[in-house]
């Protein structure tokens, strides 16, 4: 934009240049002629600053109007873009999972067989063969008890048994004699009766022979009864002898099964008493070839747990080892106080690396009664309408469906209701996503159903 020069200003400038030139030519006339010219022709006031200000103001107003128009144009375009904007969303298909459910619960190892060994013979410990940690076989000698009183009782009982056997022999001899007397009495009675019938003997003699026969028969019966009494006495005494002999075998305490000595409460010279079941045991022994793993299964999974379900046992201190086992028994009924099912898993332990009393994690492969639909947890929408997922329709519009969560598995969710499997769902749905919104699906690949995992704190659950 150019500025126009006023004609009067141009003339004034020419006169000033001429006057300056004249002064330079004739310096002697500078004072008189210059003063006269300046007093004779004064220039008019200048208007350039006003014009510059007006032009600057006009330029500023024009520039502001242009910026305002640009802002309005941008806002209109933005509004149009917002109305017609189709967001690109990541999508995955909802998968149907029918694989066995993996259920991880805390457990504790227990010896398959455990025995507290008490003394059955009263006496002093004369010899001890094992100590804590000793591995023993069934029948191995653990401890020997010196019980002289018991030994003497056994010898006395055996002697009494001999006396009773001798008495039985006497009674049997009496029976034989009684039988002979009965035979003689019968012959005499028969002869006397015949003679009395023929008149050669009196009737009194016949009656006496008959009485002698009856007496001999009664004596035989008594002798036989004495034999039976003697036999009964021998049987009773034999039982006493057998009992004492059995008790004397308890002087040698042996292992009832293969196992490990886990506790020892006596030493050589200690006095022990027989039949002290409520007292202190001599030893405690555990069988560790097969271990029981005790697990408390919550009610949510108790219906699916039964004998034969496979399980894996892991010890936190041995993360590289996994021990296989199966559910062998359960209480069937749940504990009403905690709503848990007492379950035992048998685990083979031939190398003895597992020990009774360990805290372990037991993972069950629980078969599913019916398949579940699983979705990534990042697809969940939780707002005032409840829990929902955004399902992409064939026309690339969105439908929000309410769902019911069966189990939260961390990165994935198992649904009880809401989806049937195979639907395309939106991951990380935008906050302004509504029913009927258009989207541009971007598949993330097929979602594969994974085995569900669940951890339960023993004390809390």
From TrEMBL:
Chief location of this protein within or outside the cell: other
Keyword terms, alphabetized: Coiled coil, Transport
Locations listed in the record: Cell envelope
Domain Multidrug resistance protein MdtA-like C-terminal permuted SH3: 373-427
Region (Disordered): 428-461
Domain Multidrug resistance protein MdtA-like barrel-sandwich hybrid intervals: 114-275
Every Multidrug resistance protein MdtA-like alpha-helical hairpin domain range: 170-234
CusB-like beta-barrel domain span: 293-365
Biased composition (Basic and acidic residues): 432-447
Coiled-coil regions listed: 147-181
Superkingdom of origin: Bacteria
Protein family membership: Belongs to the membrane fusion protein (MFP) (TC 8.A.1) family.
Name the record gives this protein: RND family efflux transporter MFP subunit
UniProt source species: Methylobacterium aerolatum
